[in-house]
Structure formats: C-alpha cells, structure tokens
Amino acid sequence: MTATADTGASGAAVDLTDPRLQSDPHGFFAELHRREQPVPASFPGVEQPVLLVSRYEGVRAVLSDRRFVNNPASIAGGDVQNVRVKRLMDLGLSREQARYLVDASILDMDGDDHTRMRKHVSRAFTVKRVNALRPRVEEITDRLLAELADHAEDGVVDLSEHFAYPLPITVICELVGVPEEQRMQWRDWGRRLIQSAITGGQMDAMEGLVAHTRALIEERRRTPADDLITALIRTHEEDGDRLSDIELVSIVLTLILAGHETTAHLIANGTLALLDHPDQLRLLKEDPELGPRATHELMRRHGPVQGTRMRYASEDMEVGGMRFRRGDVVFAVLGGANTDPDVFPEPDRLDLAREPAGRRESHVGFGHGIHYCLGAALARQEGEVAFTRLFERYPDLSLAVGHEELEREPFPLFWRLKALPVRLG
Questions:
Q1: Average pLDDT of the chain?
Q2: For a Cys staple, 352 with which of 235, 276, 294, 343, CB 3.0–4.6 Å?
C-alpha cells in the first residue's frame, strides 16, 4: 500500500481546481504560505491527497533532495502507483505511447538514468549553440513583428497566436531540425496534446508526434545536417553509453514540445504584465540593456509553470523541517516560492531591476536541482529579445480588451492565457 501523509495538522485539503488559481494565483499562494507545510490538496484524477510545498526554502529543499523521485518505479518494492501515468491512461494514452511520453522521458527519469540522458542532451544542447542562435532569434522576432499588421483587424491582433507562439516554435524547430513546412503541424499536435490534458479529451495527437519524430530521425540518418537531431544520432551511435531508439524519440519530442509551449506563455504573460505596469515598461523602453533582468523578474512574477511535476517520497523522511512518508505525492509550488515574502520583499510588486545584473538567478521559475530546465538559457534569450524588440517596434502597444475578458486555461498550477488581443498603435 502507498503511504499517505498525516494531513490533520495542516487542516482541510486545498482544491487545486479552485478558480482563484487562475484569477488570483498570488493571493492563493499567500494563503498557502500561512498554512503548516506541507499542505494537503486534491488534484483531478488523483485519488490520494497530494502535498503542496510553497515556501521558498522548502521548495528548494524538496527539489534538491534525490530521495524525491519523479518516477515511482524508482522506489524499491514497486508498490507505489504512478498517478500521472494513470491519469494519462484515463485520458486515452496507450501503453505504447506512454513509453515515449513517460517511461523514456528525461523529465520522468531519476538517478543514474537521468544523469545519463542529461549528459547526452547537454552535449548537443550547449550554451555555445544557444548563444550562436541569438542573431537568428532576433531575425525571426523582427520578421514576426513586421507581419503583425498583416494579421490585425482594425489595428487589433492576437499576440499569442501571431507572435508569442510562432517565435519559440520556429526557433526550437530550427535548432532541432524540423523542416519549415512541418512546423505548423508540430504546433497543432502540441496544442491538441495540451488541450487533451486540460479538457480530458483523447490524446490522439501522440500517434502523429511519434510517427513524425521517427521519420525525422530516419531522414537525418540518411542526410545529416547541422541540427540537434543529427548531433543526438551521432551521440546515440558513437557513445558506448548509448541512447535507446525510444529514448532518442522521447528526447526530440520533449525538446520541441517543452521548448515552445512554456516560452510562448512566458512571452504572453510577460507582455500583459508590462502593459499593466507602465512605470516598469518605461524603464525597459529607456534601457533595453535591462532585458535580461526584466526577463528574470517576469519569470518570477508571471511564469507559466507554477508547480513542478509530481514528486514521490522514496522513503520516510524529514526535509526542511517537513515530514514525509514513503509514497507521498508532492508538488513543489514554484509560484509560491517565487512570491515568498521572506525571500522577495514586496513579492507582488513587479520590479524589473530586482534581479542583480549578470547570470545569477534567485527565482525558481525554471526549477531547481537535477531537473533544472535544460532549455532555460534559450527561453531567457527568447524572452529578452521578444520583450525589447516588441516595444521598440510598437511603443504604443496596448491591451485591446478589458481584463475581465481575458481567459486562462483551467489547468492546475499552470498560468496560460487563451489569447492576448492587443492594439498595435
């Protein structure tokens, strides 16, 4: 049997479908901070309580402790249910498809397997390669901004549809090696997959994603190119500690899907935040060199991912003054950590100069520990370019609807706008 935490001391369970998580997430997190940690909560499709850790030091402690695992199969005994797999199977994911999305996914691996996979991906997804991309990111950004007027009706355009999404999907597809004529299909598959998880629809997009990825890999075996797929194939075939075929497909899927969805929503969320804070927007306009610090602050305050993947306690333990039992399902609430008043003074105030200059990063918007986001450097670069170039090109950009008309996807611990209508000015 899976052990469960003693939730009595923490009070009633939190409902993670509470609408306040979309309308007022930071108020929601403030309430969590006042609760004894960890806080029990209910999550759609999960029978047992999940435990929320929302304070900064607690989140970092959980994410740093390797006794918390992403895949319960890593726990000796094999009697802890993988609640994420169960939910995906309930949504119609086949066991065959789960091999690519879960079993062989670097996001779900622990210990030596995760280290091995991350080593392979890091060799191909280097900082040097990302830095060399910047001129191309700027070129793509400028082209998309120039085309915005063509999509506008009476001066109004959906910035999510025509800028925030196309920028990262174009960049990551070029980096990985997806031909231009196939990129819109990838975007469609990604959207359908996310919508399936949100609405409970069938996950039929996975069949196309897997088949297309296999075809891309075979094409690059025949015709190598200067892209990530070719680099991964070379690693796969030359390294003694090689990737399996399933792992190779899974890595490509993960890089493309994770490499554009979250960045698209960072750009949309961040743009809305800047429009809502004209004093901070003015600072960025006056000093574009503020871009890196601004992107960090927007990720802290308005990041699209408010919680990590489910973690499982592999044994009875005490971490950061909190007690957990073997088999407990734990969520590290990144949005809560990033608005912890003990670490960030006036956490609800947007301050683009909050982060110090340089590469240091105090927030946990990209995670922490061994599962820190592999694509963080690329996401930051895309954010910096997007925010600075957008307002250089359209200095009078404004929100075209009232806040009450903006809708967010009702998915726990994610902050995703359905659309962002803006007036170009």
A1: 89
A2: 294
